[in-house]
Amino acid sequence: MADEVCGPYLTNSTSTNAGWHTFSSVFIWKRAQILVAELWAAFYPASPSEPHPLFPAGAAIHQLTMFADYRVPQILHHLNIITYPPSLLKILRGQVMLETGCREELSIRSASIVAVERVRLAMLRLATEADEDDKREGEDGTRISSVLIDFYLWDLAKRVENGEESITGIATVPIEPVHRTRSIWY
């Protein structure tokens, strides 16, 4: 179902969020995915037994990745889930504007997508080990999804950056500035 909603949007879009990395195209469809995820979340039924009013057959939300923005990579780095080379840390700390689609920007965003997918898979494995009932993703694949992980991490990053919350119990690195780029895709 996510493909059915995103498809017309992507087909009718006049431009794409694409870049080149090692001789191949990289497409990041953040806006299309957010469209589906926000519609799904905004109209989510009060009871899980009720069908979704916009996606009665299921939104296939589990097919979406995280949204590859600037905030989630920041918290993933803080949590030691992704690491940055010293050269990139220097760029971030200097608040240097990255060119849209450059190697650094694509690397940060792509690493975040991969990292959140790995977090999702680890969560599914832990749920399976903990309790047979928890291993299910849900009837519509939404119990443990990259979309919900993205929502949580984005909010967590803001709270940590603003000093409203701190991470305890695990080793973290100092929270770094977000990467900066001028783009309509964020």
Automatic annotation (TrEMBL):
Q: Name one GO molecular function term.
A: hydrolase activity
Q: Name one GO biological process term.
A: tRNA modification
List the EC numbers from the record. 3.2.2.-
Q: Keywords on this record?
A: Hydrolase
Pfam families referenced in this protein's UniProt entry, alphabetically: Q_salvage
The answer to whether keyword Metal-binding applies is no
Looking at the record's lineage, which domain of life comes first? Eukaryota
* Catalytic class of the enzyme: hydrolase
What does the record give as the reaction this protein catalyses? queuosine 5'-phosphate + H2O = queuine + D-ribose 5-phosphate
UniProt KW Amino-acid biosynthesis keyword? no
- Tell me the function of this protein: Catalyzes the hydrolysis of queuosine 5'-phosphate, releasing the nucleobase queuine (q). Is required for salvage of queuine from exogenous queuosine (Q) that is imported and then converted to queuosine 5'-phosphate intracellularly.
Family note: Belongs to the QNG1 protein family.
Designated name of the protein? Queuosine 5'-phosphate N-glycosylase/hydrolase
